[in-house]
Structures are given as structure tokens and as C-alpha cells.
Fold these 2 entries.
Entry 1:
Amino acid sequence: MQAISDLDLYHLAMEEPWFAADPVPEFDKARARHPWLATSNLGHVITHYPVVREMFANEERMRTSFDEMVEFMGAEGTPWGSFQHRHILNQSGPEHKRLRDTLALAFTPREANRHRDLMRATIAELLDEWAPKGRFDFEEFASWFPITVQCRMIGAPTEAIGSLRSSLEALGLSANMDKSVLEAMQEGTRIMTDFSAALIDAREAVRQPEDDNDLLDVLLEVKRQGKLTRQEMIDLLIFLFVAGYDTSKNILTLTMFEMVRHPDIYARCAEDVGYCAKVVDEIMRFHGTTNTMRITTQDFVHRDVLIPAGTTLWFPWAIIGRDPAATPGAERFNPDRERVQAHVGFALGGHMCLGQWIARAQIAEGLHQIAKRIVRPTSTGPEGWRPFPGVWGIRGLPIEFEPA
Ligand code: HEM
């Protein structure tokens, strides 16, 4: 048995822009040095798909780690810092279960399917506005879709979308550990807090106990029963916006990035929304968007390596599906592949993405309509990349196409 600190591990420069632009070869080099572990300036990194699963089969040995992030950022007692301490992903045990149970019924596959008409109408309106242009930045286009869907799902005024969008752009950088964006994240938290509080007040003023129209009504009923405080409800609304915004935008943009390279697959997407669902699943394996960390809460031995309590472990959900151990031919983008194991783009364990069915439905419906209206897209590049830790993805994807 060896202590983790005694291992000779490959260093992954995860925070560097060149790393974000092409992380896969770096993970291959890391696995050539050690089968499942690498180091980085931000902590150790699990590089092997089976070990990610093994770690989450024993996830009681780890906890989520926003407290350390707030300390690192020097943001104790600030709006952004306090929100990071309170939100659902930073909770564990009964507190986490209570918050998750509150949301769970509104996030089933059935509920997600109920919103498909709304998703279709939203993307159609956006395409009416954008498609005639013939060329635009696809990332910017994609950013309006999830936020508009989310506002409509909770009956929020859509005039607010512009200011929410810039707040969410800032808050999407929360896990990047970048102090230069702290002030923008504080402002974003203030705007999102005021928006959520006003939304609650406006609905509470008109709501009848029997109303059960949308997620906001569901949460207000739990609050009326005394099982959710006003502050918790505000935090949940902010978290849902943050969790659903740039993740969905980035997956849609990464999808277009691949579709430009695979015109035959893209053409099939225009014909068949069921096939779009397969494409989205394959994108989530090939190019996910979220990489998160855990802190170990006890000493334990894994595959003969001693990992002490207090160790930071990164889980690269976005890229771990490219490990050859995840699936045969892992390096090839292929929506028709036989799925040996599910992708882990929505994470694993107790915090696994609650919004995954909404995200899947939204991106598949979006892709289907986009493929019908944005014909033969080509990338006029160059595209940029967001930092790898936290919410990774493409920053700017200029395209040219034939409007249909
Ligand atoms: C493609 C889009 C999305 C991706 C890739 C994604 C990814 C993830 C991942 C990886 C986690 C777990 C993080 C961790 O364990 O450290 C997570 C959690 C979560 N996501 Fe998503 N997400 C997406 C869309 C959404 C949407 C649309 C919503 C809601 C509207 C949402 C709500 C949540 C919530 C509430 C959690 C926390 C669950 C908990 O702590 O129990 N997500 N997401």
C-alpha cells in the first residue's frame, strides 16, 4: 500500500486555457503514469472511469466542498459566499434529503415531458428571430434557450431575462476559483436574490391553496406547510437557474460543435427527435460540461492507495467517458453505439443532477428544431474554451449556414 502523497503522478494543468481546449490527450498521459490518479494545482484528479464509479459506490467517505471554495475566495459573509454555504449541493444528510425531496416530484421524466410543448415553442420563437441572419455566434443564440424555458416553467416575467442572463453568466464561473470575477458574482447573486424574492411575493399575493400549476406553486405549498423557509425557497430558485443555465447552454453549443463535424448525423437530427435524444446522450459522454470536486471525510484505502481525510478529489464528469475503459471505441463520436455503461455527465450518487430529464428533453427538442432551420452549418471559428474546472464548454462558436 502507498500513501497518495508518495505516488509519482502526472500533473494536469486544469486551470490553463490550453488544457481546456484539448484535455483528452492530457488524461491519456496521466493514465500512462498512474492507472487512475493524477495531481493538479486544485487537488488530486480521478482519471479512470471505473474508479469514478467505485468512489461513488462509497460516497459516504466524501462530501461536497463549497465551504473551502468560499474560504479560498475570501468571500465569507458576502451574498455570494453565504449562498454557496446554503445551496442544496453544499448540503448533506437529512438537510440535503429534505431539500431534494421538495424538488424531486417536479423533476421526474414525466414532468419533464409535460414541458416539451413549451420547449418547442420557445426554440421556434428564437429561431424565427435568429435563423434569418445566416450567421451568428451559436453560443450566444444557445444562451437564450434554457433561461427562457426556465422562466416560462415557473411563470416568471420574460422581460427580466436580459439581466438574469448576465447574472447567470457571472455565477456560472463560481467553481472556477477565480478571484477576479468575485465582484461580478456578488452582483449576480444580488440580482438573482431580488428577482426570486419578487417572484415569490407576487405569486403568494394571488395564489390559492389548491393552485398547482408550476414549480413555483409546488414550492410555495411546501413553504405554506412550514417545511421550507422563504430563504430556502429563494436559494432553491437561484440554484435551479444557475444549475440549468450554462450547463444546458454549453451542452447545446458542444452539440453544434460536433454537428458541424458530422453533417450526416446532423441531417438525421432534422428528421427524428428520437435520434436527437441519442445524440445528446453521446454528447454527454464525449463532451460533458461539468467537473466537480469532493473532500474526503475519513482515511480510506482504495485500490491499495491510502487517501487521508481532507484530500480534495476532482471528478471530471465531462471527459471521463473518453477513458477507453468507459466504452469500446471511446475516442469516436458515435450516437449509434451500443451502450455498455451509462455516461456520467450528470454525475453519480446522492447529488446526481435533478434537472437531467428537463435538460435531456430541452436539448433534444432544441436540436431537432435547430437542425430543421439551420441547414449545412459551418464553423467560421475560432472558438474559445471556458476553464476546465467547474462548468467547462465552448466560449463563442461563430457559424454560417443556410436559413431554411
Ligand atoms: C445538460 C445540462 C446539465 C448538466 C450537464 C448538469 C450537470 C449536473 C451535475 C454534474 C450535477 C452534480 C454535481 C456534483 O455532484 O458535484 C448536477 C446537480 C444538480 N443539477 Fe444539473 N445539470 C444540467 C442541467 C440541470 C437543469 C436544467 C437543472 C434544473 C432546472 C439542474 C438542476 C440540478 C440540481 C438541483 C442539482 C443538485 C442536486 C443535489 O444537490 O441533490 N441541472 N447537475
Note: The chain has one domain: 2-392.
Entry 2:
Amino acid sequence: MTDQTNQPTKVAVVTGAGQGIGKASASHLAADGYTIVVADIRPEAAQQTVDELEHRGAQAVPVRVDVSDPAACTAMIAEAVVHFGRVDVLVNCAGISKPAPSLDVPPEDWQRMIAIQLNGTFYCCQAAGRQMVKQDWGGCIVNITSVTAQAAFPERASYCSAKAGVDMLTKVLAIEWAKYKIRVNAVGPSHTETEMTRTNIARGLYDLETVTHRIPMGRLASMDDIANGVSFLCSEKASFVTGQALYVDGGYLAYGYF
Ligand SMILES: NC(=O)c1ccc[n+]([C@@H]2O[C@H](COP(=O)([O-])OP(=O)(O)OC[C@H]3O[C@@H](n4cnc5c(N)ncnc54)[C@H](O)[C@@H]3O)[C@@H](O)[C@H]2O)c1
């Protein structure tokens, strides 16, 4: 497949693209000219994203994946290659949030969080990496981490541990795969206007005013703020950037005052 200038159309696989930051990232990458593989555990949500992308003239296909299943991650990349012959970008955005006091967290909840956020990110990176190694031109991976990779939040032991793990995973894969022209970076959002954040506010875990007061720029991140970071890291403008975490956080991590 080629674009209007007869260049091959680049392909981006985005997990968790059924809604939220993943969907916004898919939308920005489609605007950047990528064909999108919209991967999510909820097929109807993936289809909805595909419909919206196609409505705007982009090319996209839905793929159902549970990223905690390594075979499903391999199958997702294989499906991308069957459809489009290549994988240029992987964005690992699938995620869950389940805050609870550490004294009460059952082992199955701990394991599910690590299985999706950390193991799933690795399985997808490995599957995509194996394809990118076969391509002369390599590829680009962006892992969505969080400010919680750096800053401890109470009642989120598994979430913070997983995100900190993905931060280090990003660096290890970046240095290991640089010789294959595969760049691996992370985007770390602060609280973002998504379903995940709305649910946490509705559950009374925090209130909007307290959060926005803690963020020097005084607001939640928009999904576009985060997707802009993804788009930049996938672009030629970031051609010598690898092993980095870009915190799109309105100054959250820099802030150490009262
Ligand atoms: N929302 C925030 O404030 C915030 C802040 C920092 C980091 N993040 C991270 O950004 C990512 C996206 O967050 P969001 O707010 O857009 O979440 P969201 O809940 O709005 O969307 C997450 C998507 O992932 C999918 N998903 C869940 N489990 C999956 C699995 N096992 N396999 C495949 N898909 C699965 C869901 O179906 C959903 O479509 C997550 O990794 C999250 O931890 C979010």
C-alpha cells in the first residue's frame, strides 16, 4: 500500500485504542498519515474507533487483544502484518486502574495489574520488536507510563510498580534494540481527562479541585496533550531520541513546594 506520493503507508498498532488516551493517540497518528491497527480487549470499542477514523478518511482495522496473553499479542502483530505487510509504530496504551489499600489487595488483583500494565507491555514490545527487526528500517515504540512511575501514590502499589517497571523496560529495550533502528520511548501523563480519571473522581478517590491545585499549570491533561507527545516521539523530529520518558504533566513532577 502506498500514499499519494507513492511512499509506502506506515502502520501503527495502538493497544487500548478503544477509548481514552489510546483512541486519541490513534487519531493523532492517523492524522500523521499512519494506517492504524486499533487493538483493544473490547471489540465493540475498537470497532467504534475504527468507524470514527474511517469517517475522517483514515485507514484502520480493529483487532481484539488481551495484552496479558502473550499469544494474543503475537497474533495481533501477525494480523497487522497480514493486513498491511509492516509495523512501523507500536503504542502500548492498554491499561487498568484499581486503587485499594495495600493491606487489603488480593493476590489476583496484584497479578492482574502487573499482567496487563507490565507483562502486557513487554509481550507487545517483543512481538512488535520481532517484526521490526525483520524490517530494514526498524520502527518506533511508545509505552504509556505515568507520573506514578516516578512519584508514589497511596493505594496504588501495583499500578506504580508496574509503571516504574515499564519505565525501566523502555530503557532496556531502547539500548538493546538501537542497533536494529528501533527507538523505544515512554510518555508519562499526569491526571488526564479520561474515563479512568472520571471514574476515580466519581468513586471519591480524589476531587478535581485538589488535583488541579497540585498541578502547576492548574488543569488536567487533555487526551490531545498526551497524544501530541506520542505523535512527536513517533515522528522524524525525534529520530535521535530513544530510552527517554517524556512526562506530559503540566509541571506535576517538577513541583516540590507546599
Ligand atoms: N487517565 C489518566 O489520568 C492516566 C494517567 C497516567 C497514565 N495513564 C495510562 O494511560 C493508559 C490509558 O489510560 P486511559 O485513561 O486512556 O484509560 P481508559 O480506561 O480510558 O482506556 C483503557 C483502554 O484499555 C483497554 N484495555 C484494558 N485492559 C486491556 C487488556 N487487557 N488488553 C487490551 N486492552 C485493554 C480498555 O478496554 C480501554 O479501551 C493506561 O496505561 C493508563 O494507566 C492514564
Note: The chain is about 45% helix and 15% strand.
